[in-house]
Design brief:
It is a peripheral membrane protein. With 960 residues, this protein is α+β, with helices and mostly antiparallel strands. Helix content is 49%, strand content 11%. Helix 7 crosses helix 8 (235-243), helix 15 runs parallel beside helix 22 and helix 25 crosses helix 26 (694-719). The structure holds adenosine-5'-triphosphate.
């Protein structure tokens, strides 16, 4: 690792040897430099210490570092997949305080997301991702979009989840399409964005991503027709040449091995040359395969257009002729663009001029150079329109309904500051945009902060920050500036040489400290001292580029095309706006004026948002991992004004909230401590007081503010228990209209707020639980009552049924018993009568005493029951058995000697009962001849059997 740092000790990195010692020294300190998450903690904050800290972190594979309000992102130049895992995104999203986690672009992403949620003005957020070409801006923007796709998609229903997923996928799919058509391989970056873009991620009330909109800036369209020797055209041209199928090649006239002059370095294969990915993404964005094929056919046509070359004409009156090998190209071009071949060639060769009152048309053959310019212009015109159309298609696919989103997070990915050996209008525009953004940054964090301190009555030691207003005045100021002078040249349409333009600029703007001139330069040029360093711009071709003239014949020609795509790109009803009219007084729309207008529009949007800054730094220009070139990084740190930011952010009050918002958000902290201000507590003091004057409002807010601020020491104490050093009163200052505080104070306040909210939530939960419990209790009691009523009703009904049934059975039983008794007595009577007839000494002839007659009656009536009980009384033996029988037969117990109970076998039960003295009835255990003796009214397991074995025998009295 250190070896690599030392590896640059020779040449430009002359500090290599010292660095090694310094690095070791730092690593030996209590807090090693690579562990310092925030550059504001480096002591003292100087360029050198900041640089060393960044270096130590880079070498320790730590690529993100805070610098106060800015995040510094070092390009790892190697894949670090674990840094961008969805799990990590979720971790930052779920963290109670993401700023406590390691610095990351996800911290910025989460911060913006929470700001949107908090609804503190300005609610809309923007993230300005800046840095040199190849520093990692596009990578960062892409990763942030993926982050939002993960965190801003937690819809409740499955259906809305699917919709959100589709939208996110479309938004992510816009990246490969835009990169294929707008990125190219340059000397500094294999995948360099050749346009600026502002992506607006639209969120609904629930902070879910419902759509997006893309605004592009200044596409480098000259690249279609002109590429530097080691650079390439836009990726899409290589993709179609390498990825087309055999049939497509035939269709698009792109034979294998064909050479195109606008397709330099085709042998270099990049990972960006993935045609299938682009096609797939286009399909997802709603660009169907026929339309895609149409697009690729037109692009193939442009490649053939590049091969159209003209020979110089010796006769000015004659148009330049085509080179031999170019004739075929024109034919192919005409067929691919569905244009008539002859008018196409004629438009490239001959210029038409309208002059005079009648607008007479003159035809003038162009020189070879002019023919080439017209050819290039045709390619640029088609490509620029195609790019704009694609952006509009992407927007229509990803943009949400205007009423479906309420807030947005803007991602600005603009080309970084550029300084090449040969700089022209493109670099001037790019650096102008960077100056504007730097000014926005300076205004937001440096100047605005300091001026605000003064206005609010804060004492503050000013840092000599770098203000680039003078540079901006030089570029865009009024009435005279570089832009106005170049525009004037275009408007006057007078022939002017590069040298003349240089002189005009130098003389008109001589007083500007930001204008320099290198007298040694032979080429006409001027130098602008930008905030990031001086840049030399060559004046040759500047005016022409600014005019970006589009010959009206070209537009008219393209309007004649039968190609469906070109018909859309060049509608016939469109009035050729490029057509200059001699009477027209409208200002000429130059490249610079169009760019300036779109830049102002962008800054207007940015001014309405809370900005966040990510500064991408390229550790080396070779794109090598683990190589940190001090001087290259140093120039980038200086260029982005990072050190001043660090000073201000570390020592100042980076958080500023208006009194109103402060009271609204933290008013509930007054619950923690008894407050002194009179009047009832209202978290929103504005309610019902909208008609109050600002002064009266302020007077009302003051006591509330003081109450809140009084809670701070206790909150700080609570936040750091047992550490009196840290429990110092939080750093907060109450200005005239705003409250100023540090990050740590904000943290303390937020923690207190969360505590109060938790208490409130507990209170609400308690109340709710009590209410719910009471309600449940009431419901339970009601249920018990209902159940008891139903049960008692059911029981009553059941008993009633049983009762009825019992009555029926009882009656039946009684009937049956009577009947049995009757039958039995009748039978006995019959038998008796028979015997009486047979034996003269019948019972009637010997009247029995009354007691005996009663006994006999009882025996006759109850003998079955007596037998049953005697047999059923299990285990009843001897005398007890007799007692039972006596009881059942109601025999007089006083004279047991008058009768006897006999059992034949002890186990078999009662066999007979005999009345001894009378001895007239004898029970035998024999089969009864009686017809009804074996009828049992209730046959059951308990019923007594054996009746049918009873035989009544009648003997003579006194003889057994
Ligand atoms: N975080 C990262 N992890 C891994 N590689 C990265 C990372 N950031 C950037 N790179 C590498 O650096 C290259 C350049 O990054 P990128 O295209 O984002 O730069 P840029 O600032 O957008 O450049 P330009 O202004 O030219 O478009 C990427 O192609 C990628 O290989």
């Amino acid at each position: 690792m250190l070896q690599q740092v030392n590896g640059h000790s020779s040449g430009p990195n002359a500090h290599g040897g010292e660095l090694r010692e310094d690095l070791q020294e730092f690593l030996g300190q209590d807090a090693p430099l690579h562990l310092l998450d925030d550059l504001t903690k480096v002591n003292p904050v100087t360029l050198e210490t900041v640089l060393r800290c960044l270096q130590a972190r880079y070498m320790a594979d730590t690529f993100y570092t805070n610098a106060g309000c800015t995040l510094v992102a070092l390009n790892p130049f190697k894949p670090v997949p674990q840094l961008y895992l969805p799990e990590l995104m979720k971790e930052y999203h779920a963290a109670p305080q993401p700023q406590k986690l390691k610095p990351h672009i996800f911290t910025v992403g989460e911060q913006t997301y929470r700001n949107v949620k908090s609804l503190i003005e300005p609610v809309n957020q923007s993230i300005v991702v800046s840095g040199e070409s190849g520093a990692g801006k596009t990578w960062t923007s892409r990763s942030l979009m993926k982050f939002y796709a993960v965190v801003a998609a937690s819809p409740t229903s499955w259906e809305s989840h699917k919709i959100a997923e589709r939208i996110e996928q479309r938004i992510l799919n816009s990246n490969p399409v835009m990169e294929a058509f707008g990125n190219a391989c340059t000397l500094r970056n294999n995948n360099s964005s050749r346009f600026g873009k502002f992506i607006q991620l639209q969120l609904n009330r629930a902070q879910q991503m419902t759509g997006a909109a893309v605004q592009t800036y200044l596409l480098e369209k000259t690249r279609v027709a002109c590429q530097a020797s080691s650079e390439r055209n836009f990726h899409i041209f290589y993709q179609i040449c390498k990825g087309a199928s055999v049939e497509e090649r035939l269709q698009w006239h792109l034979p294998e091995g064909a050479t195109f002059s606008w397709l330099p370095n085709p042998e270099r294969t990049l990972e960006e040359d993935c045609f299938e990915v682009t096609r797939e993404a286009m399909l997802h964005l709603g660009i169907d395969t026929p339309t895609q094929n149409n697009i690729f056919k037109v692009l193939a046509g442009l490649l053939h257009l590049g091969n159209v070359r003209f020979a110089d004409s010796s006769d000015e009156a004659q148009p330049c002729q085509l080179m031999d090998d170019a004739k075929c190209s024109v034919r192919t071009l005409a067929s691919l663009l569905c244009l008539p071949e002859d008018p196409l060639l004629e438009t490239l060769q001959i210029r038409t001029i309208r002059a005079g009152r009648q607008q007479q048309v003159f035809r003038k053959p162009c020189s070879q150079a002019e023919c080439d310019t017209r050819r290039d212009c045709l390619a640029k015109l088609v490509y620029a329109r195609l790019f704009d159309w694609l952006v509009s298609v992407i927007n229509s696919s990803i943009c949400a309904e205007p009423n479906s989103w309420t807030t947005f997070i803007g991602l600005l990915d603009v080309y970084g500051f550029e300084s090449f050996p040969d700089n022209s209008l493109e670099q001037l525009c790019i650096n102008y945009a960077n100056e504007k953004l730097q000014q926005h940054f300076v205004a937001h964090y440096l100047r605005a902060q300091q001026e605000e301190y003064t206005v609010e009555g804060l004492e503050w030691s000013f840092v000599n920050y770098q203000d680039n207003q003078t540079c901006l005045d030089l570029i865009e100021g009024s009435p005279i500036s570089i832009c106005s002078l170049i525009n004037e040249e275009c408007r006057l349409n007078r022939p002017s040489s590069a040298a003349q333009l240089q002189t005009r600029i130098e003389s008109a703007l001589a007083g500007s400290p930001c204008l320099g001139h290198n007298k040694l330069s032979r080429e006409p040029s001027f130098i602008v001292v930008h905030y990031a360093g001086p840049v030399r711009y060559y004046t040759a071709g500047l005016v022409e580029k600014n005019k970006d003239p589009i010959p009206p014949e070209l537009t008219r020609l393209l309007q004649q095309s039968q190609d469906p795509l070109l018909k859309v790109l060049f509608p016939t009803e469109e009035k050729s706006q490029e057509e200059p009219s001699s009477q027209s007084r409208t200002p000429v729309l130059t490249v610079v004026s169009k760019f300036k207008a779109s830049l102002e529009q962008l800054l207007q949007v940015l001014h309405g948002t809370t900005p966040h800054y990510i500064r991408c730094i390229k550790p080396n220009s070779q794109g090598q991992a683990q190589t940190f070139l001090l001087e290259e990084v140093l120039s980038q740190l200086e260029a982005c004004g990072l050190v001043e930011t660090i000073h201000i952010s570390a020592a100042g009050f980076p958080i500023r909230v208006s009194h109103q918002n402060f009271v609204e958000r933290y008013g509930l902290l007054r619950r923690l401590h008894p407050h002194t201000s009179p009047g009832p507590y209202s978290p929103f003091p504005d309610e019902g007081h909208s008609g109050w004057s600002p002064h009266a409002k302020e007077a009302m807010l003051q006591p509330l503010l003081q109450d809140i601020l009084h809670t701070l020491p206790a909150l700080t104490q609570a936040a750091t228990p047992g550490d009196p050093a840290e429990a110092m009163p939080a750093s907060v200052h109450c200005g005239k209209t705003k409250v100023f505080m540090t990050d740590s104070t904000l943290e303390v306040l937020e923690r207190g707020r969360a505590q109060v909210l938790e208490q409130c939530a507990r209170c609400i939960q308690g109340g709710w639980r009590r209410y719910r419990h009471r309600k449940q209790e009431r419901q339970r009691q009601a249920a018990v009552l209902i159940q008891a009523a139903i049960r008692s009703w059911l029981t009553r009904r059941h008993i009633q049924r049983l009762h009825t049934a019992a009555t029926v059975i009882k009656r039946a039983w009684q009937k049956w018993r009577i009947r049995m008794a009757f039958l039995a007595s009748k039978e006995l009577d019959d038998v008796e009568e028979k015997h009486l007839f047979q034996a003269p000494c019948s019972l009637s002839s010997f009247p029995l005493p009354q007691a005996q007659t009663r006994l006999l009656g009882a025996i006759i009536r109850l003998w079955p029951l007596g037998l049953v009980l005697a047999n059923a009384a299990m285990g009843v033996r001897g005398f007890q058995r007799k007692l039972v029988v006596w009881a059942c037969l109601q025999l007089p117990t006083s004279s047991p000697s008058s009768y006897t109970i006999q059992t034949i076998q002890e186990q078999a039960g009662v066999a007979s009962i005999r009345a001894l003295p009378q001895g007239s009835i004898k029970f035998h255990c024999r089969k009864s001849p009686l017809r009804y003796a074996d009828i049992c009214p209730e046959p059951s397991s308990y019923s007594v059997t054996g009746f049918n074995q009873i035989l009544l025998e009648r003997h003579r009295l006194g003889h057994v």
